[in-house]
Amino acid sequence: MTLETLVEGKKTIALPCAQWGDTGKGKFVDFFAEEWADIVIRGTGGANAGHTIRFGDKEIVLHLIPSGILHDRTVTNIIGNGVVLDPWETLHEIQRLHDAGYSTDNLMISHNAKLVLPQHILLDRLEEAVAGKEKLGTTGRGIGKAYEDVPARIALTVNDLLNPDILHKKLKRNLERRARVLQTYDPALVKAILSDPEVSSFRNGSFFNAEAGLSLDALMAFYTEYGVQLKEHVRDTQKYVREHVGRKKILLEGAQGTLLSVDYGTIPFVTSSDCSIEGLAKGAGVNRSEVDLVLSIVKAPYMTRVGEGPFPTELGGTESAKHCNASRREQEQREYHGVSVNDADPLRQGIAIRREGNEFGATTSRPRRVGWLDLPLLRYAAQINGPDIIVTKPDVLRGCNTINICDAYRYDGPNMYVGETELKKGQVLFTAIPAAEVLQHCTPLYDQLPGWHEDLREARAYHELPRNFRAIMNYIEGRAGVHIRIISFGPERTQTIIR
Ligand code: GDP
Ligand code: IMO
Ligand code: MG
């Protein structure tokens, strides 16, 4: 099939991730922006995302600005109303793009996007600092705390940056409400976090106030200035989207992944937005029923996770999780030598796959935890997003003699109720129940398939791909009930086969 056939008659296409993020959304948004889209919209998340786009020897990582921004073709790039926006991070990213020679003239920011403020980043980091074993391993970007303000009815919007009187009133109220919580923390810790030079949004400790924790005056001074600088991009994007939906070609850029969704993910180890297709559509200002094609991105036949939380197929299990959450890339390079994708020790095999796939966080540079493809989770995600998928990064497993794919779990935990049924020890599950209390007791049951040794880059069409590789793709489709529409075998736009 060609891209033209795949997108024929489609006006709105969405690219959510079906896993725990980092599956190549950046690559595919850029690909569709080059080939197809008129408008690209980010609908969820904030600067916790890290979307990498590679062409030739150039690599750009975007955290907030949609990955359609790199095109000479006129593509309107929208930060939608469902995003939580850190104004300083946004200005910084705009500057980085200008320095690299890209224009941001076509960037629109929803006046209704919610703000990430220093108090959110501070509280996110305070909570993680004292959480001990309950730690979530957030990106420390204030995402959860900014979203919390929405149902609490104290959130600020991008629009408030343009209206200093309203900004002052709302900031004061927000700080008063947050002050009660802030008082419960050690003031020395508050000061240390707010003075952290590595958090650029803290502007070198500018917001610290010894009595109140945070200074309203300093916030007013910086945030009104951000408003002045961002003003040219601020638009009623909801109105713009309503005018163009069904007419122009709209691409919805996912952030994070369905298994990190606050509604559908592996709760509580999730982010704070609904990053499934439903949240993505809503946050972009589009109705779910107006999306003509959902292509969920799936890393396979291995997968990754960053931060804490259950990961049944993780290579090296809890030892790997501990290692990844406690170390950095350089440390791992120093400590582990001679690892191989065929290593008999699963921890070392996982390290080798991480190196081959360059699986280190684009936002936090943490080693991403690595494990085998998990079909019970894929079946679950497909129930939410639909069956059409893009497979990315299989090239990483070239030369791996045996590919393990988890077809089912054996539940090994205590008997427990899940809705109307009682889950019993020893029960086999084909579709994941994503709650952490269940998932942490699931033992994967693997099927083993022979790997391939040929270079996938030599294929120009699906039938030219190695036989063992195609057998694995057929197995995934047959067992998980998904349709693989596109296969990606490298970070470049050209390293893509439409099925
Ligand atoms: P995102 O958050 O979903 O946009 O993904 P990230 O950018 O965090 O991580 C995906 C990484 O894999 C990036 O470095 C991409 O350049 C790279 N990548 C994307 N697709 C492929 C692929 O098919 N093969 C390989 N080897 N790398 C890929
Ligand atoms: P992209 O868009 C992978 C994870 C964090 C943590 C949890 C909560 O690049 O795929 P948060 O800071 O959001 O409160 O952290 O969510 N997380 C991601 N993991 N890719 C991402 O984004 C992520 N964004 C958040 O590691 O486990
Ligand atoms: Mg990423």
Structural topology:
Elements: H1 3-7, E1 12-15, H2 25-35, E2 39-42, E3 51-55, E4 58-62, E5 76-79, E6 84-85, H3 87-99, E7 107-110, E8 114-115, H4 118-130, H5 143-148, H6 164-182, H7 187-194, E9 208-209, E10 213-214, H8 216-230, E11 234-235, H9 237-244, E12 250-253, H10 277-284, E13 293-294, E14 296-299, E15 302-305, H11 317-326, H12 329-335, H13 346-356, E16 369-372, H14 375-385, E17 388-392, E18 402-411, E19 416-418, E20 421-423, E21 428-429, H15 436-439, E22 442-450, H16 467-480, E23 483-488, E24 496-498
Parallel strand pairs: 1-12, 1-13, 2-5, 2-12, 5-7, 6-8, 7-11, 14-17, 17-23
Antiparallel strand pairs: 3-4, 9-10, 15-16, 18-21, 18-22, 19-20, 23-24
Bound molecules: guanosine-5'-diphosphate, 6-O-phosphoryl inosine monophosphate and magnesium ion (MG).
6-O-phosphoryl inosine monophosphate binds next to helix 5.
How would you sum up this structure, described in words?
Among the domains are: 3-108 and 236-299, Adenylosuccinate Synthetase, Chain A, domain 1, CATH 3.40.440; 115-231, Orthogonal Bundle (Adenylosuccinate Synthetase, subunit A, domain 2), CATH 1.10.300.10; 319-368, no CATH class. A seven-stranded parallel sheet has the order 11-7-5-2-12-1-13, with helices on both faces. The chain has a four-stranded mixed sheet with strand order 14-17-23-24, with helices on one face. The chain has helices at 3-7, 25-35, 87-99, 118-130, 143-148, 164-182, 187-194, 216-230, 237-244, 277-284, 317-326, 329-335, 346-356, 375-385, 436-439, 467-480, and strands at 12-15, 39-42, 51-55, 58-62, 76-79, 84-85, 107-110, 114-115, 208-209, 213-214, 234-235, 250-253, 293-294, 296-299, 302-305, 369-372, 388-392, 402-411, 416-418, 421-423, 428-429, 442-450, 483-488, 496-498. With 499 residues, it is an alpha/beta fold.
